[in-house]
Design goal:
The chain is α+β, with helices and mostly antiparallel strands. It has 15 helices and 52 strands. A nine-stranded parallel beta sheet has the order 32-31-30-25-21-20-19-34-33. An eight-stranded antiparallel beta sheet has the order 3-4-5-6-18-15-14-12, covered by helices on one side. Helix 11 packs parallel to helix 12. The longest helix has 16 residues.
Length: about 950
């Protein structure tokens, strides 16, 4: 049995190791068992480190040789004697440090998966803001800023800079797998380790994907924290807290504040070539230490670092985008509201959602179907009874006629043909083209997912792109004329251990658990915080005027894990040599076995984390071929560095609890760093039953996140926004604001696609010198102008929020235009009745808006524009609006509208070749402290204007200005 062979391979890998023979590339590895009598110490304390020699300078940096400084320690593999270090000053703000084995036998990510930046064309060695420093023996390096050579290094591997190594893990768990035995450089065939000092209590952000109990700012083990173990191993798990989940992103941003100068600077660190491999990244502060640290523990690969100088937080993210690529262009329609659930059982129910949303006048842009759509739960099919293809086509045609859109799901696994009479072209065609992953013996690797036994596309195979494009083309031409695609289960997920279908009864299409909503897995729990023994069976927000949430102590946030808690007791996690902290324990649980084989000989152990990225790229290419000239739109679960070039992301299978609404903010902010900005949560929660109050608040919050979709699980109560009147009202209000802001959103996404500038921002990214903002993750900003302060707890009618600027910034209410009387540098209490979300406009902003938000994005974009200007105390403001047709790919003609305000006037000027058909019908200027006596537009007196002294507001209506021309509004 192949499954038994997998277990044997795990044992051999952990106890005797692998040696890899190099063929035509360093990815093509032959696995040979080493001496079974070899003993690994499992202890890095005796590792000797390395010494540097044969140093050579060049125009762009340096190259040197590293040799083992003493007797090999063979802690978790065989020490590699000879290494090479290459240091390249790639630009003024990017430094590349690559440490690799001299024989180049270790695994590295091929450039076909992630292209590298072009080599520098001029020398930056004497001008770069970053400086590489080193000690030769023992070898260590540290990175400083050229402008501040004596400041604390940005990255520092010197033993003298690190705390004293301690064997016990410095946290309450006392798990030696997270002990700090040694800080020497370790470079073995199956284990790499490198440690850098951090300032004590460093402000570290990124490293994911994760739902972090500490919030957006990562726990480094100070201020009562226990530190962090961030494991990078893509995993299908329902959003557990502090464990590895769907994506792998080893990029962090650190933000440092100088108490003396009251200024700050950010930098970034990205470790590229190990991300394909299983690894742990530790953030920790040992007891009595005056520094914190970050430690990388990799099972193979190389140490390939990119350092980004910033110094502004957003500049770090932009510089990361220069390495992995900036995000894809998003079609305008994708910013609309999306609706889905697992549990629309047929086409009639799906159509009913479209009709009921229209009847409730709640804008619906995109209708989705989950796996209910499929015949026998098979990709690229429709069920002939519940989703007849002619009726699916009719619904899609109706949506298209109404300027709406349709997105179906595509799961990672392809159903295995049951027998010769089983006609399923996606499988038989895949066999013909030889595109499926195999076992080591060359037979098909057969896992188990929703349709039963399944195979998995091999993205390294020569014909897979052809196969994938053909499958989408056939599906679309059959009548499923989708506008975009939803990629799920692409970690890749499999419900069994190993190639469980080899030799099995292929006719058994059941899955090894009860589906949600079926007997054995009914979702009957009341919503969070509701106790029917106290409040009765209704599940309402109030009963007889009394709030029902928290009538008992049934509500609780997910528990916070200490270091090492993900390690299952007595589990074999390829153990030893080193057991990473995979939440499922053994690496092959709920995914492909590590010995599954890809062409041309790669193994799953090496390429596991890349599966989702490669599927995203292939799907993007398929949609570009199917819909030439139009922007492909994808939403995917598993992501990897550079995924944003192809896809957006939803935050996975969350839960209908208040804590997860809060967690969605840190998730959105994480993915801005990862250059995957089109991101959002399952609004209302996926798992479990939501309630009216939670959904009300969540529908309003998500309206201010980039990707906006309501989605829940089969068997749970319905949570469409029309179900409760209060939710319907809140949704209409929030969606109207979202659609009004579409030109602003669209401009932000044009900027991220061209420059990498993040659309959604942590408060300190805009106000980097205010330390009180460094830990804020219950508020966020859209661009530089919009501040959002949602309600994230039940049973309240107010919310606390901080207003950045320390009294020097004027904040005005989005809804009323009133100036906020905010406390400087501390929280201000804001009214927040149910159905209201606090949104504020920063002074100095000029926002081009849609004046009449419609039911669809097309209807909205077809209407007139409005301009909202919020003057600073000096009477100035600035803004831009990028306008094009919203769909063409590559982007075609465009116009950038520049908006500048000075005391007494606002000037609009368009630059570009796109003709803007819609007129500017209204201008509102906030902050004019005296009523004007005269208002002119382009030198002509305007009669229809209004001044409201309570908001210092000038409103000029019915002006019908041509945005293709220069326009000046003036007042005296």
């Amino acid at each position: 049995m192949v499954g038994a062979a997998s277990v044997l391979l795990f044992y051999l890998a952990s106890h005797v190791g692998f040696v890899y023979s190099h063929f035509t590339s360093n990815l093509q590895r032959q696995i040979t068992v080493l001496d079974p009598n070899r003993t690994l110490s499992g202890d890095t304390s005796s590792c000797p480190g390395y010494a540097l020699s044969r140093f050579q300078n060049n125009e762009h940096g340096l190259t040197a040789h590293l040799s083992l400084s003493g007797k090999a320690c063979n802690a978790f593999g065989l020490d590699i004697n000879d290494l090479t270090i290459q240091v390249t000053y790639e630009s003024q703000n990017r430094l590349h440090v690559n440490i690799f084995d001299a024989d180049k036998t270790q695994f590295t990510i091929p450039t076909s998966v992630i292209p590298r930046p072009s080599p520098p064309t001029s020398s930056h060695t004497r001008t770069s803001d970053l400086v590489f420093n080193y000690d030769a023996h023992p070898f260590a390096f540290w990175i400083t800023r050229r402008s501040a050579p004596h400041d604390t290094p940005l990255f520092d591997t010197r033993i003298t800079s690190l705390p004293k190594a301690s064997v016990p893990a410095p946290n309450p768990v006392q798990n030696n797998s997270t002990g700090l035995n040694s800080f020497a450089l370790v470079f073995e065939d199956q284990y790499l380790q490198l440690t850098s000092a951090l300032p004590k209590g460093a402000n570290v952000y990124g490293l994911g994907e994760v739902v972090a109990s500490s919030g957006f700012r990562r726990d480094v083990g100070t201020d009562g924290g226990v530190g962090t173990v961030q494991t990078l191993w893509a995993r299908d798990a329902h959003d557990p807290v502090d464990e590895n989940i769907y994506g792998s992103h080893p990029i962090y941003l650190e933000h440092r504040f100088d108490e003396t100068t009251q200024t700050s600077a950010s930098h970034g660190v990205f470790l590229l070539r190990h991300v394909n491999l299983r690894s742990d990244i530790l953030l920790q502060t040992p007891p009595s230490s005056n520094v914190s640290l970050i430690e990388y523990r990799l099972l193979g690969g190389t140490l390939d670092f990119y350092f980004f100088s910033g110094p502004h937080p957003q500049a770090v993210i932009e510089q990361y985008g220069e390495v992995v690529g900036t995000p894809t262009w998003i079609p305008a329609w994708a910013f609309g509201f999306h609706l889905c659930r697992w549990g629309y059982p047929n086409i009639s129910t799906t159509r009913e959602q479209v009709q009921r949303m229209r009847a409730a006048n709640i804008p619906l842009e995109v209708m989705w179907n989950d796996i209910d759509l499929y015949h026998a739960v098979r990709d690229f099919t429709t069920d002939p009874v519940s989703f007849p293809i002619d009726e699916v086509k009719a619904l899609v045609d109706e949506l298209t006629a109404n300027h709406q859109h349709y997105i179906p799901i595509v799961d990672a696994a392809v159903a295995k043909q049951v027998n010769a009479t089983d006609i399923y072209d996606p499988y038989t065609r895949g066999v013909e083209l030889d595109v499926f992953i195999k076992n080591p013996d060359g037979s098909e690797y057969i896992g188990q997912v929703w349709p039963g036994y399944t195979v998995f596309p091999d993205w390294f195979a020569n014909n897979t792109q052809e196969y994938w494009t053909q499958a989408f083309t056939n599906w679309s031409q059959s009548g499923v004329n989708f506008s975009g695609i939803w990629l799920d289960m692409n970690e890749a997920s499999s419900f069994c251990d190993g190639s469980c279908g080899t030799g099995a009864d292929l006719g058994n299409t059941s899955v090894p658990f009860f589906l949600p909503g079926t007997p054995g897995n009914l979702i009957t729990d009341y919503p969070e915080g509701y106790d029917p023994t106290v409040s009765g069976p209704s599940g309402n927000i109030t009963v007889n005027g009394t709030l029902t949430f928290g009538a008992t102590n049934s509500s609780s946030s997910p528990s916070k894990r200490g270091l090492g808690a993900a390690k299952l007791k007595n589990a074999n996690i390829n153990a030893p040599p080193y057991a990473i902290h995979n939440g499922f324990g053994p690496l092959s649980i709920h995914t492909l076995a590590t010995n599954a084989t890809h062409q041309p000989g790669y193994i799953e152990l090496d390429v596991h984390n890349m599966w989702g990225l490669m599927e995203e790229k292939a799907t993007y290419n398929a949609l570009a071929a199917l819909h030439p000239g139009k922007r492909p739109f994808l939403i995917s679960r598993s992501t990897f560095p550079s995924s944003g070039r192809w896809t957006g992301h939803w935050l996975g299978d969350n839960t209908s609890k208040w804590a997860y609404m809060y967690y969605s903010i840190q998730g959105v902010l994480q993915f801005q760093i990862f250059q995957i900005p089109m991101v959002g949560a399952d609004t209302g929660g996926f798992e479990g039953n939501t309630d009216e109050e939670l959904l009300n608040r969540w529908m309003q919050l998500s309206a201010f996140h980039p990707f906006y979709r309501n989605h829940n699980v089969k068997g749970a109560i319905s949570q469409e926004p029309y179900v409760w009147d209060s939710v319907a009202n809140a949704s209409r209000t929030a969606i109207a604001a979202r659609y009004a802001l579409l030109p602003y959103w669209y401009t932000l996404f044009a900027n991220v696609s061209t420059l990498g500038t993040p659309p959604v921002r942590a408060l300190f990214w805009e106000f980097p010198n205010e330390p009180e903002l460094f830990g804020i993750d219950r508020q966020f900003m859209i661009g530089c102008d919009i501040l959002v302060t949602p309600v994230l707890t039940p049973n309240v009618s107010t919310v606390e929020g901080i207003f950045p600027g320390r009294g020097k910034t004027i904040w005005r209410d989005w809804w009323t235009h009133d100036v906020v009387k905010a406390n400087s540098g501390m929280n201000t209490t804001l009214a927040a009745p149910l159905g209201h979300i606090n949104v504020h406009i920063r002074d100095g902003s000029a926002l081009l808006l849609h004046n009449k938000p419609g039911y669809t994005i097309e209807e909205t974009r077809s209407g007139p524009y409005a301009l909202l200007v919020s003057l600073s105390s000096s009477g100035s403001a600035f803004g831009t609006a990028y306008i094009d047709d919203g769909i063409s790919f590559p982007p075609g003609p465009s116009t950038m509208v520049m908006i500048r305000a000075a005391p007494g006037n606002v000037v609009l000027s368009g630059q570009g070749s796109f003709k803007i058909e819609q007129e500017l019908s209204k201008i509102t200027v906030l902050g004019i402290q005296q009523k004007p006596s005269r208002v002119e537009l382009n030198g002509k007196t305007v009669q229809g204007w209004q001044y409201l002294s309570a908001q210092d507001k000038l409103v000029v209506s019915s002006i019908n200005a041509n945005l293709n021309q220069h326009n000046t509004l003036s007042w005296t």
